[in-house]
Amino acid sequence: MCGIVGYVGHRQAEGVVIEGLRRLEYRGYDSAGIALAHDGRVASDKRAGKLANLEKAMIDHPLPQATTGIGHTRWATHGAPNDVNAHPHLGSTGRLAVVHNGIIENFAALRDDLEDAGHEMLSETDTEVAAHLLELEVCAGADLTTAMQSVCRRLRGAFTLVALDAEDPGRVVAARRSSPLVVGIGEGENFLGSDVAAFIEHTREALELEQDQVVTITADAVSVSGFDGTPGEGRRYHVDWDLAAAEKDGHDWFMRKEIHEQPRAVAESLLGRRNAEGLLQLDEMRLSDDDLRDIDKIIIIAAGTSFYAGMVAKYAIEHWTRISVEVELASEFRYRDPILTHSTLVVAISQSGETADTLQAIRHARVQRSRVLAICNTNGSTIPRESDGVIYTHAGPEIGVASTKGFLTQLVACYLLALYLAQVKGTRYGDEIAQVMDQLDRMPAHIQTVLDADESIYALAREHADARSVLFLGRHAGYPVALEGALKLKEIAYLHAEGFAAGELKHGPIALVEPGLPVFCIVPPRGRDQLHEKMVSGIQEVRARGARTLCIAEEGDESIRPYADVLVPVPAVPVLLQPLVSVVPLQLFACELATQLGHDVDQPRNLAKSVTVE
Ligand code: F6R
Questions:
Q1: May I ask the CATH class of domain 251-441?
Q2: Selected catalytic residue, list 2, 376, 414, 521
Q3: What is the pLDDT of residues 391-400, one digit of tens each?
Q4: Which CATH number describes the domain made up of 449-614?
């Protein structure tokens, strides 16, 4: 939510900042802005709408050359997405500029104080108060680092702030509290970004910061301190993906590219998980086997697509380990006073590692002395750092706002966790675990088989370009897939779409069915006879009422053919692993339908990739 870039070095800052914003635009695209330190003054431009509007404006009104700059791409919280509310915000004298991600909760009181003291606020944002407060400090003689420390001590809420002082042009100062910020370490230049995509073109060396830290970058140095001024240090790491991963590679959308990357993403998330004896090992799991043996309840918390991965995990963990599992929306979790003990394991699933709802939920769990394990795709992000252990997924950067490869690799991590718990607790024999691992190892090839038939799904999507509503039915592990299929369609095609547990249909939703309504049916494998039979009944019920049934079923399942208007075959795999293949046609369908409707698939309206406000 909001992308932030900072640069000090030997290049023209304008190019570096705009390129960084382009790579961060998936985080928010309501407006964009830039500020450069030039000749003792801030030179700045900012425009409502996508980055392209700012770039166009800068052709008509070029900014002066400078080697220090900051930039911002916005997902609006306080104030409408217009030119005035766009960042950067400047103080009254024009020497200081600030960009901000997050919410300053006590901004109203600070704003009143500033206005009483004669400061004129131009925007409706909470950010502008930070610009004025910082300017007051530097005008009183503080350097920008000291000013930032002092101002941050007065702010409440979650925020990343990045500032420059044009009278001290060789430095950019930033601060973070519960909001993302990483430092890129170059040679004779340094960078700041909401995530590493902002600077991956220039360096793969990064520095992760802790909460409540201020960082100062110059061309040659990076220094870290606490809000109280005590010296600090970040954790340095090497980013294990490169610029190519952050580009579309010939695809029209990042989402389409990321769907097609799924075989590799799944394979990489499985890599190195078995030791020489064939036993499962989860290296980044900082919880001991003794800790895990004590676990008697698991609560999975997550949001959106990650929540659906958690729903699948429940089936797998309970089946393989007999530990009871609850799955809860992160935004609801701490408000219901959940029962948590030291023997409860809280599993937080988050692609970005920055989702505020999930972060606040794990903080609540840790206060209650529960152990927290994160499943995350983003090295250096907050949720894994605040957890007792982490299983990293290896999807590479996910840039399309709609999660795809993030979801599949989360499923893999959930299966690995379930099998690891089964190994530690002895609830499954070693050869059973090895058999599932072998089945998982075959999944990349199965996913590729589904992708190889992408053209037939695209044709199906084009046929349904005028649909006004689409339903999705599933049972067991197919139920979360139905919910995920509906979510994909809602978020990028802006189409009414709902997922249901097929058995629930007759309890109300079947009233929605009318002639011609497309209904996707996720058919479980035939091995699970009862499930399969019940699903077939559900399909017949909707078909009898005129629905057009689009059935995703395992190859060779001829029993479905009489009830399927369209049959989408997927490779035959065990029921618990079926989501890895059955969700893929739904992702392709949503991507193509949204394309047909002329929507911006990677940047759907009103959304942002990582939701860092509650
Ligand atoms: C849907 C989507 C969102 C995210 C949700 C959680 O396609 O991307 O629903 O899944 O905002 O995000 P993370 O996993 O980053 O915590």
A1: alpha beta
A2: 2
A3: 999 999 999 9
A4: 3.40.50.10490
* Angle CA 384–385–390, to nearest 5: 35
Bridging pattern class, strands 213-217 and 222-226: antiparallel
> Of all atoms in ligand 1, which is nearest to the CA of residue 352?
15
Average pLDDT over residues 59-81: 91
Which among 121, 141, 239, 122 is positioned nearest to 191, based on CA atoms? Answer: 239
All residues at 6 or more sequence positions from 410 whose CB lies less than 8 Å from its CB, including other chains: 305, 306, 309, 349, 351, 375, 377, 393
- State the pLDDT at residue 332: 94
CA dist 317 and 373 (Å) reads: 14
Ligand 1 lined by 360 (C-beta under 6 Å):
no
- The whole-number pLDDT of residue 412 equals 98
**Distance between Cα 401 and ligand 1 center (Å):** 8
Q: Is the CB of 321 under 6 A from ligand 1?
A: no
CB neighbour class for 178 (10 Å; exposed up to 12, middle 13-18, buried from 19) = buried
For 3-244, which CATH superfamily applies? Aminohydrolase, N-terminal nucleophile (Ntn) domain (3.60.20.10)
Q: Give 492 Cα–ligand 1 centroid separation in angstroms.
A: 13
Q: Is 381 in the pocket of ligand 1 (CB under 6 A)?
A: no
Residue 314: active-site member: no
Residue bearing tokens 């916005």: 74
Closest residue (by CA) to atom 9 of ligand 1? 304
Q: Which atom of ligand 1 is least distant from the CA of 488?
A: 7
The beta strands (E) that lie in 382-490 are given as: 389-392, 469-474
- Tell whether ligand 1 has an atom less than 6 A from the beta carbon of residue 149: no
Closest Cα to atom 10 of ligand 1: 305
Q: Is residue 126 classed as helix, strand or coil in its secondary structure?
A: coil
**Side by side, which strands form the sheet with 344-350?**
324-329, 297-302, 344-350, 371-376, 389-392
**What are the tens digits of pLDDT across the range 313-342?**
999 999 999 999 999 999 999 888 889 999
User: Is the CB of 331 inside a 6 Å radius of any atom of ligand 1?
Assistant: no
Confidence of residue 528 (pLDDT cuts 50, 70, 90): low
d(CA 311, CA 512): 25
3-state helix, strand, coil in the chain (%, to 5): 40, 25, 35
Domain ranges, ordered by start, for the chain: 3-244, 251-441, 449-614
pLDDT in the model for residue 380? 79
- Tokens 């997405």 appear where? 81
Say if 251-441 and 449-614 have the same CATH topology: yes
Of all protein residues, the one whose alpha carbon is nearest to atom 6 of ligand 1 is 303
Angle at which helix 405-425 crosses helix 579-596, to 10 degrees, equals 170
Is 414 assigned a catalytic role? no
User: Does residue 304 have its Cβ closer than 6 Å to ligand 1?
Assistant: yes
Contact 334, 364 (CB under 8 A): yes
- DSSP assignment letter at 91: -
**Cα 218 to ligand 1 centroid, rounded to whole Å:** 35
Pocket probe for ligand 1: among 1, 305, 488, 614, the residue whose CB has the most ligand atoms within 8 Å is 305
358 Cβ below 6 A of ligand 1: yes
